[in-house]
Amino acid sequence: MPMQLLDGKFLSAQIKQEIAAEVAQIREQGGKIPHLVAILVGTLGRSETYVASKMKSCEEVGMKSTLIRFDDTVTEEELLNAVRDVNNNPDMDGLIVQLPLPDHISADKVMETIHPAKDVDGFHPINIGRMAKGLPAYISATPQGILEMLKRYDIKTAGKHCVVVGRSQIVGLPMAILMQRNTYPGNCTVTITHSRTQNLPDICRSADILIAALGRPEFITADMVKDGAVVIDVGLERVPDATKKSGFALKGDVKFDEVAPRTSYITPVPGGVGLMTICSLMQNTVKAARGEVYTGF
Fold this sequence. Notes:
Layout: E1 4-5, H1 8-28, E2 35-41, H2 45-60, E3 64-70, H3 76-87, E4 94-97, H4 107-113, H5 125-132, H6 141-152, E5 161-165, H7 172-180, E6 189-193, H8 200-205, E7 209-212, E8 230-233, E9 237-240, E10 248-251, H9 256-259, E11 265-266, H10 273-290
Parallel strand pairs: 1-11, 2-3, 2-4, 5-6, 5-7, 7-8, 8-11
Antiparallel strand pairs: 9-10
Helix pairs in contact: 1-10, 2-10, 6-10
């Protein structure tokens, strides 16, 4: 079977059209226009790029968006107060706080302060717990985007062995939970691995579906992938590259040129999972504006 790209650029354009149509219908009916708020601390280049993409995408589909900026000297309490202000503003439906945060601020404390009904990134412990039980909840944006990608490409998952490389609370852990649930996509036998896993190459080679979310550029090489595997690359890191005008290239966790020929499906970097993550945020914000996720917290 020839290798096929899981084209996040194509899918995200399709999904944006669907969201735009839904927002237009809400407007025609005199309903509340979905409103996404992003809080950005500091000037980390990667975070600046991510947030700008999220704000631009909201504009493209007719949603409202607000960016709240702080210097990296902001105190934890000042940031928590900003989160509480958004929680208490009925016009603001979804809130994301861009990670990473400065070392003096507890990301866990910030995530726990976001009201679960506005937690469109799906990071609050209540949403993670409800997701694990299969109850209505905001699903973490990147895993949700991956599920959408698998579904739209009609990739069979039932009974397959899914190996997740990386155990972060943002991607690896929720991804493992979602892929084993009795749903589609899902019903996989899941192995979750990480940097301390023994015999990691052997385990990766046993995967029908390999999801790389380790944050190490080009960590997954051809000898770690079996023929015909589906490979999802969540990584996105800047790597120095003198041949580029910018001085760097964007690389995923997978050594693409080497691995791609062995796969049945693979995501490119860039142009893969990252674009799906942004679509998930917007889909969740529309749900929040409609009150479609359980809010009886």
